[in-house]
Amino acid sequence: MKKMPRAAKILIVEDNSGDEFLVRDAFERGKARHELEVARDGEAALDRLRGLGEHADKPTPDIILLDLNLPKIDGRDVLKSLKDDDRLANIPVLILTTSSSEADVDRCYALHANAYMTKPFDALGYEEIVEAVEAFWLATAVLPTASPTAH
Predict the structure, then answer these.
(1) What is d(CA 80, CA 74) in angstroms, rounded to the nearest whole number?
(2) What is the pTM of this model?
(3) CA 52 centroid distance within chain
(4) Do 116 and 87 meet the contact criterion of CB atoms below 8 Å apart?
């Protein structure tokens, strides 16, 4: 397995602080170097990714972990907006949600999500997901070259 030459930039789009804590904790226990950033709703995520306002000089994340059930702009609409934007479409988007609905799974893949995972019920489950993300997305897959900013 190869390693990323730098810390992976990961944007977590999650409105639940408990789930955010579990994801953060799992990455801290993991092996990959990373920089985590959180957007609390769909609107904030799109502003961040488009480099608007305070986000003007922030680099594009390497990976996005996206919840579906978000305030302001639903995660499904965030996914569609990302994949419809030529500047953002190549960022891998991994859905991490409570929904196991077949319709949600099918719709997210139709919108070009790169993976669909249901949230586990405990910290160990989050560690297993993060291990899988690290093993594939950060150690095996070749990620697209990130642009300095998304705008």
Answers:
(1) 10
(2) 0.92
(3) 18
(4) no
pLDDT digits (tens, 9 = 90+) for 92-136: 999 999 999 999 999 999 999 999 999 999 999 999 999 999 999
CA distances from 78 to 6, 27, 70 (A): 27, 24, 9
C-alpha closest to that of 35 among 2, 3, 75, 62: 62
Would you list the domain boundaries of the chain? Answer: 8-135
Is residue 63 within 8 Å of 8, Cβ to Cβ? yes
Find out whether 51 and 21 touch, Cβ atoms under 8 Å: no
Quick check: helix, strand or coil at residue 118?
A: strand
Which residues, other chains included, contact 28 with Cβ-Cβ below 8 Å and sequence gap of 6+?
none
In the numeric block, the tokens 């859905």 are attached to: 95
CATH no., domain 8-135: 3.40.50.2300
Helix axes 17-29, 123-133, angle to 10 degrees: 60
Q: Tell me how many degrees the CA angle 54-58-62 measures, rounded to the nearest 5.
A: 140
Residue 80: count other Cβ atoms within 10 Å of its Cβ.
17
